[in-house]
Amino acid sequence: MKQYTVIDLFAGVGGLSYGFSELPQFNIIAANEIEKDISVAYSLNHPNVKMLNCNIGDLTENILKDALKGQRVDIIIGGPPCQSYSTLGKRRNDGRANLFLQYKRMLKILQPRAFVFENVVGILSVNKGKLFNQIRLEFAELGYNLKHRILDAADYGVPQHRERVILVGFRGENNFSYPLPTHGDGLKPYVTLKDAIGDLPVLKSGERKSNYDAGITNEFLEFVRDSNTSVVEEHFAPKNGEHLIKIMQTLKDGQSKDDLPEDIRPKSGYGNTYAKLWWDRPSTTITRNFACPSSSRCIHPRDSRAMSIREGARLQSFPDSYKFYGSDSMKRLEIGNAVPPLLSMAIAKQALEALKNQDAAN
Predict the structure, then answer these.
(1) Which end of the chain lies in a sparser environment, N or C, as judged by fewer CB atoms within 10 Å?
(2) What was the pLDDT predicted at 97?
(3) Level-2 CATH architecture, domain 4-183+339-361
């Protein structure tokens, strides 16, 4: 069996690596992540990958050669931090928006056959589309033929609507085919919150429980759960004040602060803050603030409380055995910024087919 070598840049906790690591035809050699705690979390889940915990700008050709031990890189995966491109909040076209030039520098040094560049949809409209056009021109300058498409994670079995731009480059003919949706109209039904977290025990604000409340009843739970254990970790609800608890308990399924009685309605916040999720729909896009009801729509629809770390991980489709590291806020950051594993699996399968087809044609 031929193996294709992989490097993951801006690797985070390893959500994008997950799909490639699940296919034996891929061998992830190295990963780069600047945040120490996040790099530790990555290594806990991918112990055989050489972790380069540093600013990508500090990665020299010699450091890379040492990490690769003479192996050629077939494919680079990863996407620069997306805060600068995000359509949430005030957009900042700061230095992080130019991290794609570091990505380009890695492509120039390593000269892989292909790459997968992942980012938020907001990147398409920065400077009226000029930034994304520049990124395409920079990558094409290195000899890559490019394709890009917006994919919604919910279409691939993730219990969350999460749109991301997937830009794929190949040297020579680019025969990459984007994965066909498996869920949605005319396909499998979308995975709902009830499907994804309904087996977890009921919690009140500030409460912790460590045993599943129900068995494995659907395909999604078969993926995330280990049938050999009854213990669930990281399932505890943040402790909130009485006023916020009253707000959360007053809201009905899918309601937001504008639906609240005036006497308890928060004076500030956007339309999707202090908002409940829907029990029978996929989640809206979660962020690092998924346990903060005043930040975005993230209130548990059944229990009327803030979401647990385990629930955030479930909405991203991380298996319950996947490890996170650091403080609770760091774990939420690791989860909220990740590529959902089920989406990464769909992308990895298509990348493998494209590489194999290219080999067959040569």
Answers:
(1) N
(2) 53
(3) 3-Layer(aba) Sandwich (3.40)
Strand bridging mode 114-120 / 163-171: antiparallel
CB-side exposure of 207: number of CA atoms within 13 Å? Answer: 12
Number of residues assigned to the chain: 362
Using CB atoms within 10 A of its CB, is residue 214 exposed (0-12), middle (13-18) or buried (19+)? Answer: exposed
Residues of the chain falling short of pLDDT 50? 84, 86-94
Using DSSP bridges, classify how beta strands 26-32 and 114-120 pair: parallel, antiparallel or unpaired. Answer: unpaired
DSSP string, 5-18: EEEESS-TTSHHHH
Please report the pLDDT score of residue 89 as a whole number. 42
- The residue from 54, 82, 292, 298 that is catalytic is 82
Radius of gyration of the chain (CA): 21
- State how far Cα 76 lies from the chain centre: 17
Domain locations in the chain as residue ranges:
4-183+339-361
Look at residue 86 in the predicted model and tell me its pLDDT. Answer: 43
Query: Helix crossing, 100-110 with 61-68: angle to 10°?
Result: 60
Partner residues linked to 163 by β-bridges: 152
Residue with tokens 């004076």: 267
Report the C-alpha gap between 8 and 12 in whole angstroms.
9
Between CA 111 and CA 133 the distance in angstroms is: 21
Q: Is 156 left (phi over 0), alpha (psi -120 to 50) or beta?
A: alpha
284: how many CB neighbours lie within 10 A of its CB? 17
Sign of the C-alpha dihedral, residues 234, 120, 162, 227? Answer: negative
The pLDDT of residue 83 is 53
Q: Are strands 50-52 and 75-78 parallel, antiparallel or unpaired?
A: unpaired
Helix (H, G, I), strand (E, B) or coil at 31: strand
In terms of Cα–Cα distance, which of 118, 82, 103, 148 is closest to 336? 82
3-state secondary structure of 141: helix
| Beta-strand relationship, 50-52 and 144-152 | unpaired
Find the angle CA(107)-CA(52)-CA(322) to the nearest 5 degrees.
105
CB 197 within 8 A of CB 220: no
Is 82 a residue of the active site? yes
β-partners of residue 77 are 8, 116
